[in-house]
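Re: the request from the purification team.
They wanted to know what the chain is likely to look like in 3D before they choose a buffer screen. I agreed to run a prediction and write the result into the notebook, where they can find it.
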Amino acid sequence: MVISLELPSELESDLSAEASQLKLPLAEYILRVLAFRPFLQDPPKTGLDLVAYWETIGVVSSRADIADSQDYARKLRHAAENRERS
């Protein structure tokens, strides 16, 4: 479906800046914002609800290259704690 609409220039600037920060095209960013709307209307109340939401949108198991998530998290934490500060 194609929908054309006129955005106020300030809203367009805000959305463009946000999309740019995420290195996304504006149209894709707007689609993500609209798809996220149900989550904002009824946010998860518990950790279990949040994990269930992540499963439905494909976040859980999205990194097949990570075999052991706890080991991966330990390595990330170690790298962050031991990086050089400028």
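For the purification team: The longest helix spans residues 26-41.
Please add any questions underneath this entry.
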